[in-house]
Amino acid sequence: MSTAIELIGITKRFPGVIANDNINFSVEEGEIHAICGENGAGKSTLMKILYGMQPADEGVMKVNGVEVDFSSPTDAIAAGIGMVHQHFMLADQFSVIENVILGSEPTTVGGILDFDTAKTHLAEVGDAYGLTIDPDDFVSELEVGERQRVEIIKVLYRGANILILDEPTAVLVPQEVEALFDNLRELKAAGSTIIFIDHKLQEVLEISDRITIIRRGKSITTVNAADVTAGDLAELMVGEELPSPETTESTVTDVVALEVQNITVLDEYGRPVVHDVSFKIHQGEVLGIAGIEGNGQGELVDAIVGMERPLSGSVYLGGLDVSLKSVRQRRDEGFGYVPKDRHEAGLLLVAPLWENAALGHQTKPPFAKGWWIDRKGSHQRTDEIRERFDVRSPNADVAAHALSGGNQQKLIIGRELIGDPKVIILAHPTRGIDVGAQAAVWNEIRSARAAGQASLLISADLDELIGLSDRIVVMFHGKLVAELDPAEITPRLLGSYMTGAALQGGAQ
Amino acid sequence: GGGSDDVSTDTTEAAADGEGEAMEDEAMTDEEMAAMEDEAMDDEAMDDEEMAAMEDEAMDDEAMATGDFNVGLTFDVGGRGDQSFNDSAAAGIDLAESQIGISSSEAEPNADGSNRAELLQLQADNSPLVIAVGFLFENDVKTVAGDNPDTNFAVIDSPMLDFDNGATPFADNIAGLTFAEHEGSFLVGAAAALKSETGKIGFIGGVSGFGLIEKFEAGYIAGAKAVNPDIEITSSYITEFPDFDGFFAPDRANEIASAMYEGGADIIYHAAGGSGGGLFEAAKSVSEASGSKVWAIGVDSDQYNTADDEVKEYILTSMLKRVDVAVFQIIHAQAAGEFAAGNTVYDLSVDGVGYSTTGGFVDDIVDQLEDFKAQIIAGDIVVPTEP
Amino acid sequence: MNTSWTRRLVLALAAPVSAFVFAFLLSSIVLILSSYNPIAAYSEMINNAVKLESIIDMLNEATPLYISGVAAAIGFRMNLFNIGVEGQYQLAAFAAAVIGAKVVLPNGLHMLFVMGVAMIVGGLYSGLAGLLKVTRGVNEVISTIMLNSVATLGIIAGLFPRFLEEKADGAVGLGTTPLAETAWIPNLNGVVQIFTRDIVKGRKLTGILVVAIVVGILYHLFINRSRLGFDVRATGMNPLAAKVGGVPSKKMILLAMGLSGVVAGLVGLPDLLSKSHSYDQGFTKLRGFAGIAVALLGRNHPGGMVGAALLFAFLNTSSGVLQISKTASSEIVTIMQGIILLAAVVAYQMVAQVRQREEIKAASEATGANA
Amino acid sequence: MSFTQFQKLPAYYRWPILAFVGIVVLALVQELTGQGLLTSTTTIQTALKWAMPILIAGLGGLLSERCGVVNIGLEGMMILGTWFGAWGTLQFGSPWWGLFFGILGGAMGGLLHAIATVGFGVDHIVSGVAINILAPGTARYLSDRVFAQMDGGSISQSPRVESLGGFTWPVLAKGPDLFGRVERLDWFIVSDVFGVLRGLLFQMSYLTAIGLALVPISAFLLTKTRFGLRLRIAGENPLAGESLGINIYRQKFIGVIISGGLAGMAGSLIVLDLAQLYRQNQTTGRGFIALAALIFGNWKASGVLAGAVLFGYPFGLSLRDLEGTATRSLLLVIAIALVVVMVWAFTKQNIADGILAGTVAVGSLLFFLFTNTAPSWLPGTMPYVLVLLVLVFASQRLRMPAAVGLPYRKGGS
Ligand SMILES: Nc1ncnc2c1ncn2[C@@H]1O[C@H](COP(=O)(O)OP(=O)(O)OP(=O)(O)O)[C@@H](O)[C@H]1O
Ligand SMILES: Nc1ncnc2c1ncn2[C@@H]1O[C@H](COP(=O)(O)OP(=O)(O)OP(=O)(O)O)[C@@H](O)[C@H]1O
Ligand SMILES: [Mg+2]
Ligand SMILES: [Mg+2]
Predict the structure, then answer these.
(1) Is residue D195 in some structural domain?
(2) Which among C160, C317, C326 has CB closest to B242?
(3) d(CA D98, CA D164)
(4) Cα angle at D211 between D210 and D216, to 5 degrees?
(5) Which DSSP state fits B333?
(6) What is the average per-residue pLDDT within D17-21?
(7) Are B and A touching by the rule of 3+ CB pairs within 8 Å?
């Protein structure tokens, strides 16, 4: 076995950060090599350098023993390297085939696209690796798993034999992860080399041959997957033990904090995306909602917080019917809400922290005085949040975009929790943040629960869901299809409910 | 004659008639008027020889006043360079520079028209005489003149009289220079009717709704009907006040003219400033396409002289509006220390309006036109000012 | 602390100053190419600008530009591109002139009434674009462009003939019946004369300047200090996050468009209250578009737009003196405005990048220090 | 065929069908009101002529927005096109040179826009506004330097320039004149359709031919070529393009420069085809209208054509309509169209739309019934009202390129 990739002394500096600090890293031909590290450790940066998307400041790269100098992904592609990025790199309004051929388009005379050749080649690639997809579908119509498949096909279509996958499982359910891993094994069997980034250590151990740990921009070590446990990896990553989302004793009371009755929401074509959903959450209780994304959780949350008006159904907050109230009124009545995407829906990235802290509370003291914004009060409260929730930032006047993802998330959690809401809705509260920040967020959720708040938790991280929830309901095709006890369920089983494979009281 | 004075050695018809509205002070000899008439209004079209000839003539004339003061010529937005009305005013200044010896400064407001008053004031700071080209200056001149009693102001196309107060001048230092466009238009209307073979003629106005262009239309219609009561006249305006684009839209004029020609009109008169070029183009292309010649009639200056060679042969005549004469005369009056407030009407009787004969296309009907002219001057024909 | 304060000042000034220098150099080249003497031209501009009378002209010119800038900025703060200030203010002024001439009211009250009508009409017309956006999803850029033409070519052109002042025979010139003197705004010459000499040559500092100052202060308080302004800004920065934070986005669109139009309604008032006192042939146009430039150059900042309006006014008033003194042609002024605007926005962008980099650096240092 | 089926048809079927329906309605109204301008050859020619600058500038906007850059500077680039179009013709003696330089002049405006927005990351609208301020000043300055020195030119206009001219399609519109024959048969609708078609082919100016050809060409370019695919990714998801080795900056630069070139072409068309001279302020806001046509056309070439015709038709008609009766009868056309919209909305259970359409239809009908000729302000206003109306009923269906107007930096966010 020879060395497919060898990175020697790679250094990459960003303003104020050394993303990669003299990293050495090598991958053997035909292996699946995982890279682990907390958020911002520099994994993606290293891969982007390898893929020619960013130039390294220092260091040498060798591919198959030959020194290379990539100035754009085109060079990397030519060297047989392909990359599937952390975030999907697909154009929604393009068809699958257009997305796939982009950048290496077969053409006839005069640059006219040769779709026939492209489709033939696509079919060959698909057959070879068991990846099938309709080339004429628009990406906007595809499910998450299918999009992932398009991303991989994109790479294979270019004949890459070295594949980089940056957190490919973040958005997949266990069954989809299984399917992906099957594909990866097949690729490996066919001789491909795979570099694989993942935060979920169990998955890493399952699929990879070797694992490289990166911490704060430095490569710490490379280990054989067979030789280590998840705990070992976590320790290597952060220098401390793996935090777990486990909740201790129950704090559930019998006072209903949130009651949702018969909510039905229609999509733009008039089909129900949320279908007659009802549940209650008690004070001191965490209700987890499991479900593959796109099964109506988002719309359900929107209806509960008042972002969209449902077709029918009611929402009671502490016994008060808030069904006809606005988002603001509902917040004032005691809703807190952590949206699933902090950049998209959580923050004013260009605004200072204190304004971000005020968002959602701008009608009340200490953020407001009458009709006016209370700048002093806002600053004080923001400093309080920074202190209590460990939001690492120089002051309250720095813009939110300057913070790392984890700190941004802590700011949002702090903003929502500090007002002691009666009910807090948490959508993917730890998505894409590192282990340390994750533990901090979990702690806050637990202490809110202990203080008697009711929480609605939506998460794709099934460990988190099982660990934090007092009760789990499964949402499938807009309906609640099962109610489960987290004490008795495994992520695997939960996954089969989510895909509709299992039924309550079920066969499996 | 009521208007003879020590400056001019001769009296014009207007002075002889002693019409109340007519020019009060005569500053120009007949010869000069005649000489200028033959000239292009645009200095570019006036070749050096002619220029020299005119200068010589002026030198011979001991009565010509001289002065070395500055005249502030103020155009309106986008006015300068229209090869028509505005350039005619510039031609008057040029003539005054060479003959009277004045200097001049030109200015044009910003695109939003916000600084008309400020410009007038700046001009007044440097010049004892400020000429504003266009009635849009009316209100601003009233104000600025009040603040500058030592500077004289003249506004072209506005009488600058207080009609609520017995049509007296607004102030001693404000003069209006207006034109009997309807009378000149009458003559070209008559020419059109005389020349038309189809019995259909057209009129294109630049901007309707502020009264001025309607004067052209009214005279044109009256002139045509005087020749042929059954003549069909189609009128169209490019835009409506307060949208002044109609004066700057040769493309639209071209289209409207084509529609008129295709509807059977064979002669079209325009009073649309810078849009007129479109009419000439239409005349050319329709003539070429249909094989039978159609005509255009120009306005303000003798457009045969300023138009491109390609389209000259389609310009039957032009209605002359002697802004150059008016400008020259007011400067002359100023030089002679005879600036008089109030309105001066440049009408047919003083050749302040008229028609051009360049190209020779109307030579055969000049007698009839001159006959109409005489009747108008005599008051036998009263030309309406509203269509 | 002190050094960071000076640093911030330098950063704040870097963009406008470098843009100005750049524009200055480029304009000089243009002037030289057209065989004018740039030094003569600039000194003519400066000499003119330091005269009291010219300063009055400049302030009179800057006043409506500033108001127009604020009108545009209110929309910009919410990422609403209100190109319709042009049509809104013309329509508002027309309506105010017509209605204002028909009422009899005591001194002062009459003036406020005219202002009120203008603000309401401007607000309603702009609000229409907001309503179309909220209820029908019509892009406000397009709807306001369309509404501009509808207002000027349709509504005003259609109604104008009906409201013309009756004039004696022979009088030319068109306008609505002038407003009674009770509606005129007093000029500020008296105030200026307290500080300097008498103002001569009939210059009158428009009282609308006070309105503009009030508009500027209210704009600052509204946008930067009020809860509602926070909602507007939040929606502008991230509509979804604002909505999650309880800001009703549709209402905000209506509010911002409406307020933008209300302020736009004031743009035409100098003509009505202190110049011709009617909507007439010489009514000043294009200030809506100029306001967009002022807002962009002034970065929607209440103080920045003061500078931008003054700069544009300075250039506008210079065009006259350049022409009359024959030191340069007037186009140089428009060219300079364009270059300054373009250079300024490029410079702002570059400074913003520097600033952002520094902020990130500071943030990651904080992280490191605490970790 | 149901409406959804109809919507699924490719553009080259959909638009002709719609156009046919439109002609039928026009023909009907023509019969009803008893005047012949609505579908006459000359009206169609005029409409087409007036649609052309909007169409070509709109296609310019299309190329720019498809690569992610909002181009509100189209107006300024058109102005540069008018100036350079005239100058090129005068300087080199041929209107084809004028066209060349007009395109080049507009492209320089595009380059400036690209440098500011793509190179420096300046907000697209800001840069566009600046260009719109800069261009007229530059054109006037250049006129003073150049045209004012020429015979017949001045600071605000150029001497006359030669037209590009045109040609008549043989056989169909000339010689045997097949279409003309059918038109003269005066068969209801059939003759109208052929009148319209002949209008298209008779004395078609070269620029009109080029402009019309540009529609399928740009559609083809965008959807069927490598160049188009790469251009579009810059407007949809530039990071995705970058990750596949596509130089997004290059795509954007090319797109915006071509956009400027097309705007310049549109400007020189005004000079070379419509006016035959350069005149200050000649574009009269057509760049903005082109932008409206682009949005109206849902960022598709065929849609831009539809939008341009929507503007060009009533405008051209009003110029041809010396009595003002034809423009008035357009009110009836609008009423009929709105009734169709109303019926459609009600069948879709869209009560609000239905009531709105019905109300406006009744208003339009009343207006029609209580006037004899169009009031003079109507023709000038009609195109704008029409576009507003269409957007009121169609805006929800529009979809702009996903990344248009967003700043792009290499290496991502
Ligand atoms: N394009 C960029 N320009 C400047 N700074 C950047 C850029 N991308 C990331 N950063 C910086 O990176 C840090 C964010 O780090 P990190 O990668 O840990 O976040 P993250 O957890 O990946 O966040 P997210 O989940 O939102 O992507 C911040 O300091 C941020 O300012
Ligand atoms: N474009 C950029 N500009 C400035 N800083 C950046 C940029 N991209 C990354 N960084 C910095 O580099 C560091 C490494 O980022 P990188 O995205 O490689 O982390 P990562 O290990 O992939 O994190 P994650 O697990 O969140 O994906 C970040 O902390 C961030 O501060
Ligand atoms: Mg990251
Ligand atoms: Mg990463």
Answers:
(1) no
(2) C160
(3) 9
(4) 95
(5) H
(6) 76
(7) no
Residue pair B79/B108 in contact by the 8 Å Cβ criterion: yes
Coil/strand/helix, residue A22: strand
Count of pairs with CB atoms under 8 A, one residue in C, one in D: 134
What's the pLDDT tens digit per position in B240-291? 877 888 888 888 999 999 999 988 999 999 999 888 989 999 999 899 988 8
Mean pLDDT by 10 residues, chain A (508 residues): 87 80 91 84 89 91 91 90 87 92 88 91 85 87 83 89 87 80 89 87 87 84 86 70 62 87 84 90 92 84 90 90 91 90 87 91 88 92 90 86 83 89 91 77 89 90 86 90 87 77 51
Q: Please give the backbone phi and psi of residue D408, each rounded to the nearest 5 degrees, phi first.
A: -125, 130
Name every chain C residue with its beta carbon within 8 A of the beta carbon of B113: 282, 284-286
CA dihedral C272, C277, C279, C280 (to 10 degrees): -130
CATH number, domain of D82, equals: 1.10.3470
- Nearest ligand atom owner, CA of A43: 2
A85, A102, A104 ranked by CB distance to D233: nearest: A102
The rounded distance, in Å, linking the Cα atoms of B209 and D152 is 30
User: How high is the pLDDT of residue A501?
Assistant: 66
Instruction: Determine, for residues A346 and C356 on separate chains, whether the beta-carbon distance falls below 8 Å.
Output: no
Omega cis (within 30) before B242: yes
Crossing angle, helix C85-102 and helix C52-76, to 10 degrees? 110
C286 lines ligand 1 (CB under 6 A): no
- How many residues appear in chain D? 413
CB contact (8 A) between residue C293 and residue D130? yes
- At C255-268, the pLDDT tens digits run 999 999 999 999 99
**How far does CA C55 lie from the centroid of its chain?**
18
For chain C, the domains span 15-30+336-371, 72-300
- Of A48, A39, A36, the closest CA to residue A12 belongs to A48
Contact B350, B114 (CB under 8 A): no
- Asked if chain D contacts chain B via 3 or more Cβ pairs within 8 Å, the reply is yes
pLDDT band (50, 70, 90) for residue D175: low
Tell me how far apart the alpha carbons of residues D261 and A381 are, in angstroms, rounded to a whole number: 55
Q: Minimal Cα distance from B123: which residue of C?
A: C324
The rounded distance, in Å, linking the Cα atoms of A204 and A223 is 12
Backbone torsions φ then ψ of D52, nearest 5 degrees? -60, -50
> Is D286 an interface residue toward B (CB < 8 Å)?
no
Please give the torsion angle defined by the CA atoms of residues D249, D254, D256 and D257, in that order, rounded to the nearest 10 degrees: 130
C228: left (phi over 0), alpha (psi -120 to 50) or beta: alpha
Ligand 2 atom at shortest distance from the alpha carbon of A46: 18
Give the ipTM of the model, two decimals please: 0.84
Mean pLDDT of chain C: 88
Q: Is D358 exposed, middle or buried (0-12, 13-18, 19+ CB in 10 A)?
A: middle
Q: Report d(CA B385, CA B153) in Å as an integer.
A: 26
* 8 A C-beta contact, residue B108 and residue C330: yes
Q: Which domains does chain A have, with CATH numbers?
A: 3-238 (3.40.50.300), 256-504 (3.40.50.300)
Nearest of C216, C218, C277 to residue C64 by alpha carbon:
C216
Chain B nearest CA to C44, separation (Å):
13
Q: How many domains does chain D have?
A: 1
Sequence-distant (≥ 6) Cβ neighbours of residue C322 within 8 angstroms: C41, C44, C45, C328, C329, C330, C332, C333
> How is residue A473 written in tokens?
């309901």
Q: Given this model, what pLDDT does residue B156 score?
A: 93
For residue A260, what are the β-bridge partners?
A279, A315
Whether D294 is covered by a domain: the verdict is: yes
